């Protein structure tokens, strides 16, 4: 029985735009990104596992920020979308560092950080690392610690043996007919970035949003994260009937409202 829960949530929305810019990472690799100037605080979007910056939520936020005159940045992690690298060479630490590079070298001033699915985990790691740069944090169907909670602990004995022997397992996905390759390095390196086993040193305002019908990432992970946050201004919104994508018009409006709320604080 498959154990991997698919975390891709934005692949259903093609988007046409100008060619992205490239941010060199100093190792012959580069991050593709789009950024637009505007008022502060800006908005920085972090996508999900094997998702990219052309997805529904990323492009909706882009359009929203253009309408409201707010600066906005979206990007693709290493091995994702238009960025360089092989997806299977990526790790949570590498993708966190990509997000930090974009925050440090592309954006200016305080940011409202919006993280979707795996991006919710990355957004928490980024906020812990750069608390002075994050004015507020929003997560959408956050998947903190998913490499351990949703993959490693659910591996069958046969999958564990394949992982040790081959360095990867392929798991079916509703979002990709070829399935996803889950590497041993992704799981092992992910252990260095787990956050649900201790208090999370985030004190800015936080808005967690999760669908109660999410079949990919249980909403209990967002509830657990809420309890770990040190912020005195943190809320969890459970959306009745919503799935993992959180991409319908009502979900998009809810995300935009959260951005407006935190940007005004």
What does this structure look like?
With 265 residues, this protein is an alpha/beta fold. The protein has an eight-stranded mixed beta sheet with strand order 1-2-4-3-5-6-9-10, with helices on both faces. The chain has a domain at 29-144 and 198-263: Rossmann fold. The N and C termini lie far apart (47 Å). It is built from eight helices and ten strands. Helix 2 packs across helix 3. The protein is globular.
What's this entry about, in short?
32% of the residues lie in helices and 24% in strands. The chain has helices at 56-68, 92-105, 118-129, 146-151, 157-166, 184-190, 220-228, 249-263; strands at 21-24, 30-36, 39-46, 70-75, 111-116, 134-140, 168-173, 176-183, 206-211, 234-239.
């Amino acid at each position: 029985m498959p154990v991997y829960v698919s975390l891709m949530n934005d692949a259903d929305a093609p988007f046409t735009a100008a060619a992205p810019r490239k941010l060199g990472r100093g190792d012959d690799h580069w991050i593709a990104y789009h950024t637009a100037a505007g008022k502060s605080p800006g908005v920085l979007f972090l996508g999900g596992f094997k998702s990219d910056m052309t997805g529904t939520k990323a492009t909706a936020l882009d359009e929203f920020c253009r309408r409201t005159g707010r600066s906005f940045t979206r990007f693709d992690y290493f091995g994702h979308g238009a960025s360089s690298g092989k997806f299977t060479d990526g790790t949570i630490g590498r993708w966190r560092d990509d997000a930090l590079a974009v925050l440090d070298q592309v954006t200016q001033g305080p940011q409202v950080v919006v993280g979707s699915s795996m991006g919710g985990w990355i957004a928490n790691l980024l906020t812990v690392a750069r608390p002075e740069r994050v004015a507020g944090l929003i997560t959408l169907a956050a998947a903190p610690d998913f490499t351990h909670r949703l993959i490693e602990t659910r591996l069958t004995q046969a999958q564990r043996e394949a992982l040790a022997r081959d360095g990867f397992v392929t798991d079916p996905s509703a979002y990709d007919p070829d399935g996803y390759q889950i590497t041993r390095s992704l799981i092992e390196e992910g252990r260095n970035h787990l956050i649900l086993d201790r208090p999370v040193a985030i004190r800015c305002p936080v808005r967690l949003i999760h669908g109660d019908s999410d079949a990919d990432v249980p909403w209990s992970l967002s509830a657990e994260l809420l309890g770990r946050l040190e912020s005195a201004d943190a809320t969890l919104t459970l959306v009745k009937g919503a799935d993992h994508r959180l991409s319908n018009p009502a979900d998009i409006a809810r995300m935009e409202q959260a951005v407006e709320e935190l940007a005004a604080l």
